[in-house]
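assembly run, all chains below
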Amino acid sequence: MDLKEELKKKALLVENALEGYLPLPDTYPAVIHQAVRYSVFAGGKRLRPALVMAGAEAVGGDPQKVLPAACALELLHTYSLVHDDLPAMDNDDYRRGKPTSHKVFGEAVAVLAGDALLTLSFQLLAENAAGGSAGPEDVLRVIGEVAVAAGTFGMIGGQVVDIFSAGRAVDADTIKYIHSHKTASICRVAVRAGAILAGAKEAPLAALTDYAGHLGLAFQIKDDLLDFEGEAEKIGKPVGSDLRNKKATYPLVFGVEEARAEAGRAADRALAALECFGSEVEFLRRLAYFVIDRES
Amino acid sequence: MDLKEELKKKALLVENALEGYLPLPDTYPAVIHQAVRYSVFAGGKRLRPALVMAGAEAVGGDPQKVLPAACALELLHTYSLVHDDLPAMDNDDYRRGKPTSHKVFGEAVAVLAGDALLTLSFQLLAENAAGGSAGPEDVLRVIGEVAVAAGTFGMIGGQVVDIFSAGRAVDADTIKYIHSHKTASICRVAVRAGAILAGAKEAPLAALTDYAGHLGLAFQIKDDLLDFEGEAEKIGKPVGSDLRNKKATYPLVFGVEEARAEAGRAADRALAALECFGSEVEFLRRLAYFVIDRES
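ok done. output:
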């Protein structure tokens, strides 16, 4: 199967499952459930849940059985987008071609919708992640790891440094910190969650973690490049928003050529991390080049 | 021991434990860890963690063993205060006599500090809540219940209705919904967490849940009354802020006399729920009247 087809197939599974997990839009108090659904079903590549499923497949597990965890990681990602877009943060009016949550529902509901998505993410993990090879200890391990990856030593830490770096001269270490904490940490924990819940041993788990860290970096550098030189109608938000927000990005710090080269090297390193695996990681292998070749 | 002394003793245990769980204030990125600590150590009665410990004691458990869960509930409560105070929400400049998080650290960091506190709360539960009589299944049950109580069918739902009720004529059902979801749901899950982690059977668990629901209502009505008629220097924020924010409150909807009477009845019902217990719930019994007799 074509990589894009495979991604779409995984995205469809996740979206169907999310449809069942999220309260219906007329559930009281309706506005919050409408806001939650608005952002969750606004499109998106569903990369993180795909990594959860692929993490399970890589160690011989059934990707269907880790669907709750896959959905939890997508809710976590969506929460981070809703809060990042807030006026007090990046102040973005558009995301994936649609007005952002606070533009539609107001700032108060957008803050609470993000809070609700984060809370739901942990609820989903606690209530549904067991099954297959996973025992309750494995689920607790995943919840703890997800919290660390999302917290001040992971995603939130990256967002803090990102905000304080805006408009300043940023060095190479800082931009690497931002990318590895804002993006790569969630990619790492996504693939780990799937693998742990499928009963992974420590050696393949470490290799998959290594892969996902490089993949996340390649993905984020490509995001920077698309914002820098992409076409607005393809990426769904105005091009150059990073520049306008004076954001620290790879092309800005290293130049476009070096950013492209580094994305390629990160994809190579991601691929190299998979050497100990066979055909069970075919999806992950092709994903490494997809993330840097994509146009949106 | 005097009830106030007992509350202070429990608060001290919780604050010492939190000191160990929270990253040091100079940990990179420092501003977020400073913001987290600023709000956690801004004082407060530590009522919710006291309920966690008392829930364990009520069923013969060791309150020290549920300290991580007690701390997790305080972090959850603190997150809700930081986000509630934001300009887009209640826009409060003072809390417990100190400037609110966004006044000190700016709005972006305040949003992220709330996010970090919520995330840390689940991390603490997943990593440390086991021990004593609790197995990993009990911990997962607690995490799931905390997420539900904090989510759109609990605290967030209450906050949504609270915000949308401001400035409108509010009926009795709406104010009861707000109070039972914003405040009582977390009190209920606090006492349940302690009891479940101490190996509670279902019957005492149900009685404790019943108690905490009534206690939470009594506590919140008293909060409304203090804001309505209290003294600013005692409660640590300007009196009448609910009125200025056109908040739906018990005294506003039912009148001061009826609000006082309902707080008393809620305390009576809380007490009645403890009938099946002996001296092991002495703290909870005295707490029922403390929450409506307090002056701050």
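Chain A touches chain B through 52 residues (CB under 8 Å).

The longest strand of chain A covers residues 94-95.

not gonna interpret more than that til we talk
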